[in-house]
Amino acid sequence: xxxxxxxxxxxxxxxxxxxxxxxxxxxxxxxxxxxxxxxxxxxxxxxxxxxxxxxxxxxxxxxxxxxxxxxxxxxxxxxxxxxxxxxxxxxxxxxxxxxxxxxxxxxxxxxxxxxxxxxxxxxxxxxxxxxxxxxxxxxxxxxxxxxxxxxxxxxxxxxxxxxxxxxxxxxxxxxxxxxxxxxxxxxxxxxxxxxxxxxxxxxxxxxxxxxxxxxxxxxxxxxxxxxxxxxxxxxxxxxxxxxxxxxxxxxxxxxxxxxxxxxxxxxxxxxxxxxxxxxxxxxxxxxxxxxxxxxxxxxxxxxxxxxxxxxxxxxxxxxxxxxxxxxxxxxxxxxxxxxxxxxxxxxxxxxxxxxxxxxxxxxxxxxxxxxxxxxxxxxxxxxxxxxxxxxxxxxxxxxxxxxxxxxxxxxxxxxxxxxxxxxxxxxxxxxxxxxxxxxxxxxxxxxxxxxxxxxxxxxxxxxxxxxxxxxxxxxxxxxxxxxxxxxxxxxxxxxxxxxxxxxxxxxxxxxxxxxxxxxxxxxxxxxxxxxxxxxxxxxxxxxxxxxxxxx
Length: 551
Ligand code: SF4
Ligand code: SF4
Prior knowledge:
This is Hydroxylamine reductase. By secondary structure, the chain is of the alpha/beta class. The protein folds into 3 domains: 12-222, Substrate Binding Domain Of Dnak, Chain:A, Domain 2, CATH 1.20.1270; 230-360, Rossmann fold, CATH 3.40.50; 377-550, Rossmann fold (3-Layer(aba) Sandwich), CATH 3.40.50.2030. The protein is 47% helix and 12% strand. The protein contains 19 helices and 16 strands. It has helices spanning 27-52, 58-70, 79-104, 123-131, 135-169, 175-189, 195-224, 249-259, 279-282, 298-304, 321-324, 352-360, 379-384, 386-394, 415-423, 463-476, 495-506, 524-534, 542-550, and strands at 230-233, 240-245, 264-268, 287-290, 308-311, 327-330, 339-341, 372-375, 400-406, 428-433, 447-448, 451-452, 454-458, 486-491, 513-515, 537-538. The protein has a 6-stranded parallel beta sheet, with helices on one face. Strands 13-10-9-14-15-16 form a 6-stranded parallel beta sheet. It has a two-stranded antiparallel sheet with strand order 1-8. Bound molecules: iron/sulfur cluster (2 copies). The site of one iron/sulfur cluster (SF4) has 13 residues, from loops. One iron/sulfur cluster (SF4) binds next to loops.
């Protein structure tokens, strides 16, 4: 075994990737990412104690968030670059140690565990250090349930870190959230084994993730306005073209400004689709529409796209040679021999290389037949028609709501979500979010008295909007969310889906269905706890599940 990673849904054989990642992550990168998490725990051991003594340092806080995001599935595949993160982590750990020792004075404790780690001098030595802290150690020492719960907490933190990072890039941060990250990583550094305590910590991650998603909502809506129902084109228009994928709206805003008047159309891909509904983004006439579907189709779709492609966050797949030369990454996303756009000293990004690649490429030679879908049903848009929705429920015109969404993925079995959406009766409404929507978002579901039967809430982080909508409905009907005619059917793939699930469980939401398979790190006893406490249920067949949910 040269590596061990079981943090995402496509893990090998549903157990763990042991030679190379199914995602394309090689064993060296996996070891370095494990070491980076280990180093982040060491940093937080000091930062947590320093903070309790009133000493904080924003550079340390931001670094830990970014370091966790680097290790999220489909973000960074570049071993040399992850090694640089590890080297930097050693410097930040020294800084955190000084911060703590300065605050504690003669009372400073000598910390053990990851706090004591010192980096090897070469990349090879760092890789060996990473291999010594892989998850197999935890499984061997603590058994699958405890190790799995530790992984659940860590995965939740990784997903939440992604949202905190997006928000902090846009100037929205929260000291309490940073404090929790240090507290939780310090907790993991102590190798906790109490199942009840670990479960409680996982739910606490869910609570903090709600705050993180709210921060990101504040950042996005504050900068670009509230999403509004918008008909968007999903077929090509003639001309030079750039395709932008990932979740980072700020990158899109900068790209749109820099491409203004250059004769280039910008298309969204994957999780960037919801950007087309934000007033201050869609005002750009050259934001032409969406191209393609979810992340796992990118090798086929990027190959066919006749322009430049920009990946702002996950989910990146191993690029094919056919488009590698016109593919660019930015932010924390990396692939070893793919051009990267860094943030400049002025805090802005210069997308000139992307623009030049788009101008050099052929572009679309003709308009395709126009096809559109409607998006933009985030909390503000839905709340503005809440009276109509409540009236329709009271009149028996809307029988049930289904939230069918989450990550998409490559493995078979995900047609369940298409089949389920198609089977949903005509007097029911489907709410959706994240890239799982591509399983059915181009189908025509019609409307109920003017209310569309398919309401696309937005990106995965817009689960915050979904929660707000559910809470508002519960308020209107003077009941709890669990008493609403509302069923959650989630598809998971990676760590953002994990933190969203933890948020829903923290809110006490029962009867969530999850698929296409359960996380490999959830041990049998932990699963039983989740079933007993929350009635969390693996998906079955669309017919059986629908009958149970409507029953
Ligand atoms: S992220 Fe997923 S596919 Fe990649 S190595 Fe880890 S478990 Fe395997
Ligand atoms: S929703 Fe999940 S799977 Fe989809 S692009 Fe975002 S992180 Fe990746």
